Structures are given as structure tokens and as C-alpha cells.
Amino acid sequence: MKITGPPDIAVDVAGSGPLLVFLHGVGGNRHNWTDQIVHFSDRFTTLAWDARGYGDSDDAPNRKFTDFADDLARVINHFAIKTQSAAAHLVGLSMGGRVALDFWKRYPHLVASLTLADTSAGAPPSPEKLEAFMALRRKPLLEDGKTPADIAPEIVASIAGPTITDIAYARLIASHVALRPNSYLDTLAAVTRFTDFPPFESISVPTLVIVGEHDRVASPAYAASTAAAIPGARLHIIPGAGHVSNIEAPAAFNAALDEFLASA
Q: How far is CA 190 from CA 81, 84, 102, 187, in A?
């Protein structure tokens, strides 16, 4: 279904009960959360979105990072009557975790709990390093005539854990193949340049920090420092997983989230 915009936001919804919202990463879409939608829909109204510019959601040029949180507020408010609760449990992976943090800062009354999966929200690199990173991502797509399908294997190889299954690998490839080049690059720029996150010590909702053992993007050490800075936060490291831990190790991811939500 779609939540009317602009932009229109595509969502998958299943189950009933409190609202549990899944937010994908910069190379993802709502289908990244299929295992979680199925697993949790017997207890929650589970929802996964395509962020603006992804999947079946409308694009929106000149996006700001804060636009994602504003879109999310619209989605949560749409389901407030159905779930009989205005607040949602948020589960964000990588970029999705950054969206969740910004959302908590600006819409705290709509947040029941936070799960930050494979998320980094520290200081950005220097402007020179940031521009070099963006140039590296722009060149294949804008100058070399390559498609997301051409660059997907290299990107997936850089984020996957060493024991990734063939099924998980295929899902990550498909996710990156589905990217819209301009939307992807615009979003990547917005995500990497945003720094106005809430101080971790100010977060006052139950929080779980999940990270793959072999995450090279948001390291276990960084995840541990994040959990230590958020009052009462829990840390869970998923053995064998890389950066997209919910796809690489869905059973372990779901078990950790189950335990957390039972007391959140």
C-alpha cells in the first residue's frame, strides 16, 4: 500500500498490535525486512517502508536528510488509529538507524523504543575525504556509464560478512540492483553530510544496539561505544554477520529483537 504524500510512500504491513517499523539502509528497500515482517506480525503491526526515492515510493529531488523523519511521522500518524497507540517501536539499519535517531530527536512522542542496527552516527569525515568518497560513488554511475547492477557485486563484497549464505548474498545483490542512481547518490550525500544527531546521553527510550561481528562500516567497537553512551542501552553482537545483519543472520537478529521488545 501507499501512504499519500507528496511524496507517496510505499509500505508493507502485516499483523496487529503495537506498531513496529523497519527502516532500511542506503542500499536497501522494504523487501530487506521480509524475515522480520513474517516473524513479528503475530504480535505487532509490522511495517517496512521504501524511503523516498526507493522501491515503489515517489522520488523527491533536492532531498534533505531530515525529510526522511518527516515522512516517517506521516506514516506513523497514518497507523495511529489502527494500532491504538501514537508511538512506534523503530528498528533502523545503517541509514535507517540514523533516520531513527533524527526522528527521536524531533518527534520523541512518537517513539516507544529504538533499535539501532549496524548504525554509525558520529562525526563525519573531513570535507576532503567526504568529497573523495562521493566522487568514488558518482564516477561509475555518472561518468563511466555503469548501472547499479554493474557495481552491486563490489558494494556487497565490501559490506558482507565472511560466511554470508548464497541466499543472503543474492538478496543483497538484488537490493542494490534496484537502486535508482540519482536517488541513491542524492541520498548518500544527504546521509553522509548530516551531523545534527541527538546526544546519545539524552536518549530516554529503551534502546537496543545490534551489530554484526564483521561489520566494517559500523564496527562492533563503535556499536559498543554507542550502547555505553545511551542510558540503559543493550548491546548485541551477531556472530558471523557483516553490515546487513538482519539479512545475513535473520534468526539471530530476530531473537535479539524478540528479547528486547519483550521488555521495552
A: 32, 34, 13, 5
